[in-house]
Specification:
17 strands; 5-stranded parallel beta sheet; globular; 6-stranded mixed beta sheet; UDP N-Acetylglucosamine Acyltransferase, domain 1; single chain; 5 helices
């Protein structure tokens, strides 16, 4: 997805509408939103040519400062769909190889991490989580490995997820278990993407 379109959707998720004034307001007043903005700018500059591509190292540094001030570990290279909502942010850790869909909400302390396993032929395989559209992940939830969290699912706070989750499910516990099926996605200010 185009990073500039995704940035508009991120702003929409934050405020319920988009304007350049709200985008600037978010950059100066919301530390978690600033992380999303610097990430999108880095992604846009990485896809550009000529002079603009030369600005990438400066914005990579700005992104590093933004993530540090928000106490997050979120690479600008992470594949994140439009309309990301980073709520509170403290302690958020996302591997750069995770894939995150549109209109996803991540709370503080969430970990999206890799899991290594040894195949039958002795080869080490690293696997990374995939969050489909409209997934809600509560505080301090841990999702690791090559799992897919289905569209519209909710992961309760403190859940430890190592198995794939079907769409529209509520998952809780350690180890995690599906506690409800056919739930309604929990997306505040759903961005039209």
């Amino acid at each position: 997805m185009n990073p500039w379109v995704a940035l508009k959707a991120d702003t929409y998720r934050q405020y319920g509408r988009f304007s350049y004034g709200l985008l600037l307001k978010g950059v100066f007043t919301k530390r978690t939103f600033r992380v999303a903005v610097t990430m999108r700018i880095c992604q846009g500059l990485a896809e550009s040519y000529g002079f603009f591509k030369l600005l990438l190292p400066i914005f990579q540094l700005l992104h590093r400062f933004a993530t540090h001030s928000a106490a997050m570990d979120l690479s600008w290279r992470t594949d994140i769909g439009a309309g990301i909502a980073l709520t509170h942010g403290w302690g958020l850790v996302v591997t750069s190889k995770a894939k995150i869909g549109n209109n996803v909400t991540l709370f503080h302390g969430v970990t999206l991490g890799s899991r290594d396993r040894i195949s039958r032929n002795g080869e080490r395989l690293s696997e990374y989580p995939i969050l489909e559209d409209e997934v809600w992940v509560g505080p301090h939830a841990i999702i690791i490995g090559g799992v897919t969290i289905g569209r519209g699912s909710r992961i309760a706070g403190g859940a430890f997820v190592m198995e794939s989750v079907p769409p529209c499910s509520v998952v809780a516990g350690n180890p995690s278990a599906i506690v409800k099926c056919n739930c309604t996605p929990d997306v505040m200010n759903r961005a039209p993407v």
